[in-house]
Amino acid sequence: MNEYEAKKFLARYGISVPRGFVAREEADIERMDLRYPLVAKVLSEEILHKSDVGGVILNVGSPEEARDAFNRINGIFGTPVLFEEMLRGNVEVIVGVTKDPSFGHAIMFGLGGIYTEIYRDVTFRVIPITRGDAEHMLQDIKGRKILEGYRGKKVNREALIDLLLKVSAIVEENPEIEGMDLNPVLLSEEDAVVLDAKIVFS
Amino acid sequence: MFDRLINPGSIAVIGASHNPQKIGYVVLKNLVSHGYRGEVYPVNPKGGEILGYKVYANVEDIPPVDLSVITLPAELTVKVFEDVAKKSKFIIPIAGGFGETGKEGKEREKKILEIAKKYNARIIGPNTVGIYIPSTGVNTALVVPERSRFPGDGDIAFITQSGALGLLTMDSVAMYNVGFSAFINLGNRIDVNENELLEFFGSDERSKVVIMYIESFRDGREFMRIAREVTRKKPIVVLKAGRTKRGGRAASLHTGALGGSDAVADGAFKQCGVIRAYDEVELVDYARALAYGKPIHGDRVAVVTSAGGVGVVTTDYIESQERGIGMKMAELSEETKRRIKEEVVPFASVENPVDMTAQASDEDYDGVLEALNSDPNVDAILVYALFQTPLISERLVDIITRWHREGDKPIVVGTIGSEFAMRMLARFEENKVPAYPSIERAVKALRVLRDRGEILRRLGE
Fold it and tell me: Which CATH number applies to B1-129: 3.30.1460.10, 3.40.640.10, 1.10.287.110, 3.40.50.720?
């Protein structure tokens, strides 16, 4: 399942994802009905760290720039290109799913970027989770203050709790899911939007 | 379900021996010295008599028993197993040489498990030190009696995957009179597992708290289901060790790499109301706090001390998030301050910590505890019983015990010092007052009681 398919899958369960469009050839861009600026991404299941290998172009401002972006990414990787509307937000978090040998499916939540990668400031719960579990998860990380409107950067905690509950429900309904990375999830005052998604099925 | 294991009416010792170096002798000796009152049937082809018990030549010759302890090597254990299973409700094969050694050992386990199922017998182990039940005198563990001590009867049920760690843990607290309701070593856990035992001790009235040392869960989801039920009635403390390797395709994801089994277990414990310990000292410290103490609802702590420095270090530990427990020092009410100043100790500092200085007497402690007990701004009391000053006597143990029993506020005690202080610690233990020999350990006990309060609010309906 590539990123676009994964997001379609999540959207079916009411999870917010950016509006997107897949261009397989340059001519497709004419039919693209998205609001600029856009982000262009290599669309491939094989490439895990897209931005590290030059597979992501930000701030695509016009149809001309979109064509350029398509040709650059398609030229390097030979894959289709995913265009998405760029969104503004205040905090990036990670939500994930893993399958533990003794406890089975578990959901993870943490602050994105270095908080996850360097400080490993994440917390897990076994699926299914209750609303109380989800609320407890937000309290459980060391950087919890960041979710409380630190320096005026407000986030919608309810939207985040709702996302955690939906991910838990998705896994219950689809036990063949082996793992999931929703990373990053962009939190704003209004919403929690999944900007990148990987889902692994067994 | 496990009543006949904990309180067996009769025990057979298969492989009983005259040789005091052998486990087949030690088990019999244990039964004698721990006052086991049921029937005992030693079995050994040579017959005769050991420690006054008649020895039976064959398993066929003994009547049905509640418990059989097999003290033979693995190969012989397999050989006699069918005869033993016919006669027994529970079987403890002590020997190693089973699944832990490889393929051949695995085969042996398969064989004895099949036989046990056929005759409806249950196996604890194999490769186990077995069980120790102080109240009934059942003890199958092999240790050198001159160099270690078994604890007496008490409130703590202890389920452990490691026999040696379990015995060492009990030995290390036996000198403070810490007691246990039961000790069970799962060994290779081919049959009886931690979940069944947790459920059993969950409804065992003699056990006030269940503690576990676990390296891997037999069935994590089942554990959570049972723990969620048990924790409403009594606290559970788990020392979880060991991490399993992660593999498979999901390891390519961030979540897979971050979710070592330990991180998931940690979350699972929070969901099902299990308190976590990180070493054997915490395991028993927390068990004692939870078995004897009251859950703390709130986070405002009053500290009573006769040593100023102890109060300052305690304050740091209570309030610090980083190297502490993130609770608060209570703001004492004006009424409390007035009472302490006017009625009890005019020389004391009536801020919190209440520092009564080296002039403090037993009566002063009594008065201060009385005042704090009626202060609505106080959720818990940490009182230091420091016996090194002249006006403090052993009576302080009784005074604090009375407030622990009759007062409304949860109380934790700190007692610092050498032999005398340790003797007082043992007296607090006999009175079932949670008391600790260092500042840090006393403060951590507060945190555990607060966590317990939170668990009860969250999961206790």
Answer: 3.40.50.720
